[in-house]
Structures are given as C-alpha cells and as structure tokens.
Amino acid sequence: MEKTINNVHNKTLTNKFLNELIEKNFNWAKIGNLPTSIPALAEQDPNLFGVSIHTVEDESFNAGDYDTPFTIQSISKVFALLQALIDNSEEKVFSDIGMEPTGDLFDSISKLESFNNLTPLNPLVNAGAIATTSFIHGKDYDDKFNRLKELMISISNNPTISVDYDVYRSEKETADKNRSIAYFLRNIGAIKGDVDKILELYFKQCSLKVTCKDLSYIGAVLARTSGFNSLSFSGVEIPSRYFRIIKTFMFTCGLYNESGKFAVRVGIPAKSGISGGILAVVPGKMGIGILSPPLNKKSNPLAGMRLLEDLSDRLNLSLIQ
Ligand code: DON
Asked: CA separation (Å) from 128 to 153, 165, 230, 285?
C-alpha cells in the first residue's frame, strides 16, 4: 500500500518511509528522560518507538511499536474538553477556563493566584484540565467516567479501551501537585464539589490505554469534521464547532510552553502526553499517532516531536504556508 501526498518533495507515504523516520530519529530518545512524577511511567521501556498514520481515505501506515498500549495521559484532556462542551456550553466552560497559551510547565500552579480573573489559563494545562473534568455530567462519578470513556470508544472505534489500574494507582498515590492545584481551584471558586472524586476521575481518564493505531484513527476522525453542522458519536449529536475548538487548542496549547516552537517546526494541531504519546491532526488529510516515552525538559516526547518535524517537512503538512 502506498500513497502520494501532493507536496513539494512529492514524497510517497509507505510503511518503509515511516520505518526510515523511526531509524533516523531513534537517537533523540536517548537524551530524553522518563517521567518521575508518576512512578509507574518511569518503568516504561525507553526504546519503544511507534508511529501510525490513518488517512481520511481510511488507509493506514504503521511502523515500530505502533500496536503497544500505553496510557493516554494528557491527550485525554482533549476528550474531556469535548465532553465538557457537550454537557455544558461553550459560554459556561469558557467563563471558568481561559483560552490563552502558557509560558509555564504543564503542571504549574503559579499563575492561578496572580491572574485577576482567577481562572486556569487554558483547558490543556493541568489546572484547566482538572477544571474541565469537573464539568463532565453524570449521575455519579462512575457514570461521568463511563460517559467520557464511551465518547473515546466511539471516536476511536475501539471498544476495548480500558484503564491501566497500575498507572492509575501510581498517579493517585503520588499526585501532591495535582491535589494542590485542585484544592486551590476550589478555593478560588474555579471548581465546585468533591475535589478527591474529581481528581480520581481525572487520573482515570489519564490512565486509559491506547495505541498509536488508536490515536491515528482518532486523528483521522478529527481531520474529517469540517463541512458538517454536527457529527454523531456515542448516540450524541456533537456540533462540528466543538471539534474546531478542540483542534484550535491543540494548535495553540497542545505542547504546553513549547507550542509556539512546535507550530513553527511542525505546524499542525497536536497533543502530547507524559507517557510519550502524541496525537496529531492534519485537517482534511490524516491523523497521526506516536509513542516514544523519553521526554524533554518541557515534558514532551523528544524523538516523537522530531519525527513529526521530519514528517511535516517531507510531506509539507504545515497548515501555515
Ligand atoms: O496530570 C498529570 O500530571 C498526568 N496525568 C498527565 C500529564 C501529562 O500528560 C503532561 N504531558 N506531557
């Protein structure tokens, strides 16, 4: 199977091409580090490196450890935002959460107190994501989690997506920073309710297992959402505007305080996770899923970002030309 993408290099997309990109970028992983904030993630194999591409025409290309499950971590924030928008409204969500990029690390607490309006900066940093999760509706916390999981299952077309309870427990036992953020958020009125339950829901959503293949499929779904008024997932009509909103946040905030550099070098909406995953979307063309656990100092997957840079360069994927 091969596909010629209309681009300056006239490069052909094949599994072999993806294998070459893995080989070329493998050494970047050696200068990255596994995360220590969640002890179970420090046990990951640093040599894992996988990539999957799913095109809007439903062709798929894969290389490396593309079928190895890993926890979705911060990539889940994108789906929590979608669910929060469905359950509330754009006005409600963004009266309590900001829309601006960050210059700080993903789990920074510092701006919460200094901002006049006392809202988290955006839905993809931890403070904003915990607030986002608190907006998910359900009759109890199991129901809230199941609704979010069902949405992910529906978008990924993978009914086997489930929680990695070792990673979940590991995060729950060590999450002092997120706990501080969440209690602070309640103190300033940005979240309401049972802080510990909200955090458990957040840790659970972060511990859902996916593969590069799942992420590329999800990315292809997100690549195809324009030109509709709404799209139906897990029995719900979702306004296509909500998909535009989540992709916009991926573009402006998806790589935290490295989002600007990533926009210049790669130029497509993407979201990273601390377990080494990246979900990327080329609107109208394809979804991309990547796994490479070693991270840089900004907690983004080093080799994965380099691979995306090469891919974007060779296939001319940047949205800004
Ligand atoms: O809340 C946390 O710290 C993790 N569960 C997720 C953080 C994360 O994935 C940051 N990404 N690079």
From this structure: 23, 24, 26, 30
C-alpha 37 to ligand 1 mean position (Å): 9
Which one of 3.40.50.300, 3.30.930.10, 1.10.8.60, 3.40.710.10 gives the CATH number of domain 5-71+211-315? 3.40.710.10
Domains 5-71+211-315 and 74-206 share a fold: yes
Q: Which residues line ligand 1 (CB under 6 A)?
A: 37, 73-74, 106-107, 126, 171, 178, 206, 272-274, 299-300
In the CATH scheme, what architecture does the domain 74-206 have?
A: 3-Layer(aba) Sandwich (3.40)
Q: pLDDT tens digit string along 39-65? A: 999 999 999 999 999 999 999 999 999
Q: Which of 104, 105, 274, 298 to mutate to test the pocket of ligand 1 (most atoms within 8 A of CB)?
A: 274
**Which pair of tokens denotes residue 188?**
């300033």
- For the chain, the structural domain boundaries read 5-71+211-315, 74-206
Nearest ligand 1 atom to the CA of 171 is: 5
Model confidence pLDDT, tens digit, residues 285-319: 999 999 999 999 999 999 999 999 999 999 999 99
Distance 274 CA to ligand 1 centre (A): 5
Q: Is the pTM of this model over 0.90?
A: yes
Q: Considering only CA atoms, which residue is closest to atom 10 of ligand 1?
A: 274
User: Is the separation of the CB atoms in 49 and 182 below 8 Å?
Assistant: no
Which pLDDT does position 114 carry in this prediction? 75
